[in-house]
Amino acid sequence: MAQKKFYITTTLPYVNAKPHIGFALEIVQADALARYRRLIGDEVFFNFGTDEHGQKIYQKALEEGKEPQAYTDEYAASFDALKHALNLSYDAFIRTTSPHHKQAAQEFWKRCEAAGDMYKKLYKIQYCVGCELEKTDSELEQGRCPLHPNAELETREEENYFFRFSKYQDALLKLYRREDFLIPRFRLNEMLSLIEREGLSDFSISRLAEKMPWGVPVPGDSAQVMYVWFDALGGYISTLGWPEDEKKFAAFWGTKERPNAVQCAGKDQVRQQGAMWQAMLMSAGLPTTKQIFIHGFLTSGGQKMSKSLGNVIDPCALVAEYGTDAVRYYLLRHAHPYEDSDITEAGVREAYNAHLANGLGNLVARVMKLAEDHLTAPVAIADSPAMPDAWKPLEHYEFNRSLDIVWRSVQDLDALIQEQKPFAVVKTDTARAQRQITHLVTEIARIAHRLAPFLPETSEKILAAVRANKKPETLFPRK
What we know:
The chain has helices at 21-39, 55-63, 68-80, 82-85, 99-114, 169-176, 189-197, 228-233, 235-238, 246-252, 270-283, 315-322, 324-334, 345-374, 399-420, 422-425, 430-451, 456-468, and strands at 5-9, 43-50, 92-95, 118-128, 133-135, 154-163, 182-183, 203-204, 206-208, 217-218, 221-226, 261-266, 291-295, 298-300, 303-304, 341-342. It has 479 residues and is α/β, with parallel strands linked by helices.
């Protein structure tokens, strides 16, 4: 059977601040999907990286008295460091300031221009620097951007290039008829409502270089730089070596007849990922995305995280306290895949002790202690079992349901130990107790295999203990 190709990318976060727990959620979800697809035999290309141009980053660099490139180098490193902190398995880390990406962005521009989809005009807009997007009155609440209510909108008037977004309205509506294009489906309602209410308006795709020089130069017009979204979205394909490596691009991104790319993004990204980017791909004559998974936001104590409220959670600090797999576990099981979820340090601690230290960790210790003391050889286990039932919900991005299935197995095995009492049976009937313990070890191995996409380090430790017939070091020390 031929190996299938699977491409997955997260969004490319701005490097105007260090990584926060909300983005950690997205990258851990994408990592679990990538690991799952590798485990079922697919050849995976998992992309991650950073968006390093635009007004917001330019202003931050100036505020800190740094050259924009030095500023982005520093913050990009903090995102790449997540690879170790969260045990990520991405295959590429694309930076939009890399020479190849800039060349790819310019080639993408030229193709859209050749399609007749670019024109210049003088215009006046209300602009949110936080979103790096222009805002219409209907998108504002009390005259402010609802996502950045503390930031003043800027009024801008200048001559820029525009993209003929309106030209692709019917083609996008046709794309949206694909039931599996955007998950969950209800997230498309906002785009459909916008199209029905206002139609699609052409959007600006450049800025005057004399006002905002930090961007990719527009081909043939050095007075303009590309609008940050037009530049950054192309990172999803420049990472594949596009446009030079046509074979790799077609294999992983796909073709028009058979699109292959999966994107992960937050609920504030539907317009950019599900509409703007898809129209841009159509304009450039490239395949659209196969599927976009939209996750909810993380709040803390019922409030949006912000520095002023002091409730921002640093994922690296959580890892330092609880360990990588504990943070992965909490994000994948206790954050709803589609809706907003609340996270607090107290909630993480409670889940850690209840489900990991006293749950999985205690179960593995009990079973492997029995095995070490009473079995004469390791229990034989499969190296690559058939796809566990716990992975099936991943086809719908339901990480929480997958881990619910695993933890039901943990509870069931705990109950079986209490029912059979092998620790007592071994005193009177060694052979029977050994059969019971062998079954328990086999089930422990099954749990470990099920955990592989989610808690990879823990999975490996459990399987190593089973193969050695030894009780492992404490998996999750109580906090």
